[in-house]
Amino acid sequence: MLRTGKCPNYAGCLLAYRNETVTVPEGEPFLCPECKHPLLDAGATGKRKPMMIQYLILGGIAGLVIMAAGAVFIQVRHFKDKVQTGVVGTSFENAQVAGEHHEFLASRLPEPAATPAPQASAQPAPADISNVQVQTPDLSLQEKQNQEVKDEVLKRIDLMPAITDEDKDKLYMSVERARQMGRILSIPFPTGHVAVAPADVDGLRAALASPQLQPLVKDPTCVFVILGFADLKGDEKTNLHISTVRAQAVLNTLRDRCGALNVMHAVGMGGSTLFGNQKDAVRNRVVEVWAVLP
Fold first, then answer.
1. CA 183 to chain centre
2. How far is Cα 249 from Cα 228, in angstroms, rounded to an integer?
3. Who is most buried in 113, 161, 291, 294, counting CB within 10 A?
4. pLDDT one-digit tens code per residue, 175-192
5. d(CA 289, CA 291)
């Protein structure tokens, strides 16, 4: 009497993989002729499908998905660990964002050495003091420096990257035809900084409210031209970008946080020795606000 069965060794037997029925003569071992694995009686297996291979494949795919997800998670954690709070340094992309959001960028200079804890009798540290300097307006173009700056501004207007040709023409004509023009504010910037410091925000707000500047702030015909400067330590393109970001940061502060309604233009003047030679770099890291009257 013949017996029929199926091999359950799906992982190592072709007959099992094909789900083929094996016929064994009576008296012979009820084994698979290919892999010698014990057969299962055909009646007992019924309509059983060779699912082991499918399970192995699905298990392998699931394992790969879990490994990939783990690798992504590790990379994200590693990236987050490297990101510092705020915007630091003078990276141009970060500096642009910092200027637009009025963030104070930390200096790239080495951190100072830790100082000993103060004694009980020590006086508390003074609050931050604004570096904003208010100039009594001298808008006469007969003044030599006023005329020199006017000439330099006219040269730089064509280099302004984020302004249309139409607006460049309007600004050029506004400066070129100005009957009065002079510096009213000066904001120095430490090295590695391109945004307005918190103390200087308060200083700008107080300056605009001062008796010297109130007539200009209230004059709708008065245009504020905001000139950004850098020292000569970097290349020309780098200095132009840094000076432009500084000027734009001051413009944003005047408009968004000090309530200035005057028409304003930010002009990057690039690296400069207008305020001293190259050795006197600190004097050239500055933003100036100039009042221009028709």
1. 32
2. 10
3. 291
4. 888 889 999 999 988 887
5. 7
